[in-house]
Amino acid sequence: MAGAIRILIVDDSALTRETLRRTLELDPRMKVVGEAKTGEESIELVRSLSPDLVTMDLQMPGMGGLKAIEVIMRERPTPIVVISERSSAGVTDYNYEAISRGALELVPKSSVFGQGPDDVRRFAERIRRLAEEGLADERPAPASAPPPIPVTTEAPQLLGVGASTGGPRALSKFFTELPTDFPLPIVVVQHMAEDFFESFVRFLADSTRRRVVAGVPDMPLVPGSICVAPPRQELFVRENLTVKLLNTPPGQLISPSVDSLFFSMATALKGRGLGVLLTGMGDDGAQGLLRMRRMGARTAVQDRASCAVWGMPRAALEVGATDLALSVEKLAAWCAETARGVTPAVPRPAASSKRRRILVVDDDHASLEFTRTTLEGAGYEVHTLDNPMMVAATLRRTPADLVLLESELVTVAGIFVIEAMRKNGFGHVPLVLHSKLEGDKLKQRATECGVLGFLHKGDPGTVELVKGLIGAPTR
Asked: What is the tens place of the pLDDT at every residue in 162-213?
């Protein structure tokens, strides 16, 4: 990685800003490039400084942190870590709103202030790793080992899902894509500070319209409910599909642990478990998922292109815990088919690198799926992305021969996505507006953006236009 990680601190307290600056700059790989005391200032500094990461307080005079997050994610998508305290009862749940607006992580102020030197160093290390995970990772994807024993033919009885950094939004999307009549009980372990746990549970319930409950001792796990592991406790599953909770052992850094859930599923259910590992920093869940696979269970992880942070899924692939890395949408479809006893036709990476790759960027899921199906039917390798903040990171990890971009995204103007591509060294990638705009409006937008071409979504000829720009599906 060239140069120091550039961080913007946003907080109305001068003491807090100074403490955060000193804490973060304990690590010479990080540099605080600016400080803001209001939401308005933070927006201007993001525009002028283009930091790698923003730390954001939520309650400030004038424009608060929530509105600032919304504007930043619309104009200049940037990883944002909220450093806050638990929302007060009876007022706006600021932490809930921060999650829904796309904050990458929530960190309690108590983990920075009033702590010992070791805790402060761990905090700085975590912020550095969060920022680094969003930057380029040029290592090739690991090749997974074959399953130690054949996958069982028994029907699965339980779906276990683990996630960490970036998990709330990934979980929301995953459960939204999962059929409402999904027949298995579901257990989730999401790394989440205790201060923010209630906000997370409510967010997941509201965004997915499913019953989401915190796990309690001896709770029966039933279809139709999502059981979430509570903070500071390890959740285990018994053979009769009830919950067992134990206090987290002293000194354990991660709580609750995804490995605890997955190991218990392997022991209690043998091959009758279904394990999924989503976005997250570190390697929690990898060994537990491997144990599940060794017992014959079916396992999968979120793919690199769609992860906010690819650490946990990558670790699982590296130890051979699975050979399936899929987008959130495809993971949901795979789980649904597997739960129904169908052997899914899982898309595998092409053995040859000669296939033309296309990245489709759109926040309308129906449009994404239609475009993907159309282009895959013509023989192209298609990657889809509904989060414009991830365009540069996705192109670093999965180079594309062409980008199809909806210019009228809800969260960010298309021209800012294009500017982010150029700023990050991807100005050479051919780009076409594939937009809901029509006629002269679309032509004008294409001229403003300076793109290679444009096409209205309702018009035929998408495949022909693509062929004319980058050639046939294979070289």
From this structure: 999 889 989 999 999 999 999 999 999 999 888 889 989 999 999 999 999 9
In a domain? residue 475 = no
Q: Exactly one of 284, 303, 362, 386 is catalytic; which is it?
A: 284
Number of domains in the chain: 3
Q: What is the pLDDT of residues 86-117, one digit of tens each?
A: 655 445 678 888 888 878 888 887 777 766 67
Domain region containing 456: 357-470
| Annotated catalytic residue within 100, 172, 191, 257 | 191
6, containing H or E segment: strand 5-10
> 349 in a domain, yes or no?
no
CA distance 227 to 216: 9
207 among known catalytic residues: no
Told to judge if 164 belongs to the known catalytic residues of this protein, a careful annotator would answer yes
**Assigned domain for 436 exists:** yes
Q: At 264, which CATH number?
A: 3.40.50.180
> Is 185 within a domain?
yes
Residues 397 and 455 in one domain: yes
Whole-angstrom CA distances from 171 to 135, 176, 205, 317, 373 are 23, 8, 11, 20, 24
Query: Does 321 share its domain with 263?
Result: yes
Encode 35-90 in three state secondary structure. Answer: EECCHHHHHHHHHHHCCCEEEECCCCCCCCHHHHHHHHHHHCCCCEEEEECCCCCC
Q: What is the CA radius of gyration of the chain?
A: 22
Q: Which of 275-284, 366-375, 376-385 has the highest mean pLDDT?
A: 275-284
Q: Is 284 in the active site?
A: yes
Q: Which one, of 421, 392, 316, lies nearest residue 134 by Cα?
A: 392
Burial of 301 (0-12, 13-18, 19+ CB in 10 A): buried
286-294 and 258-269 helices cross at what angle (nearest 10)?
10
Q: Where are the alpha helices (DSSP H) in 403-459?
A: 414-423, 439-449
Number of CB atoms found within 10 A of residue 318's CB: 15
Tell me, yes or no, whether 308 and 419 share the same domain: no
